[in-house]
Give the backbone structure.
Amino acid sequence: MDILVKVSSLLVNDEKFYRLLKEKVSQFGVAADFYILPGGGAMISQRLENAGISSKFGPRGREIESEKGRREAGIALEEIGRFVKKRLRKEKIRAVVLLPRIKINRGLFKKKKVFHFNGDYYIEASYPNFGKIFVVTKKREGIYKSFPEELTRIEVVYL
C-alpha cells in the first residue's frame, strides 16, 4: 500500500511528528511505502516577506504573481524538502519526500518553469494513487482542515 503523509511546515521540525510517523510505519509494516509531502506555508511567507514580494490567498491557495516570487517559493520548498530528507535519515524512517510542484525543464521554453500548488490540493489530485492519506497539521484554535466527504481515505491528524 502506498501511504501519503502531508505535514504542515510548522511541524517539520517537531518531535511529535516523527514519533507519529514511526507509529504509522510500524502500524502498516514493510508492505507500505511512505511518501512525505511537507508544506511550505510559513517558510514561503517568510522568504517572500524578506524579498519584499507580495502574494495573496485565492480560492486554491497562495497566488504569487512574479516569477521571482515563484522562484523564492521554490527555494523554500526545496530547503524544507532537504531538511525533511535529512531528518528522515536521522530517524531511520524509509520514505520518499515529494514537493507540491511541477517542474518543466527548458524544452520549448527559454528557461525552466516551476509551478507550485497548495499541498491540500495536491492531496486531492493524487487521492486515487494512495491507499491511505494522513494530513498532519498543528492544532490551532478555530482552524480546522476538511476534505470532501467522499475522500474517505484521508485522515486529518492534529498535533
Q: What stands out?
A: The first helix runs from residue 15 to 28. Strands lie at 2-7, 33-38, 56-58, 61-63, 95-97, 101-104, 113-116, 132-137, 154-158. DSSP finds four helices and nine strands in the chain. The longest strand covers residues 2-7.
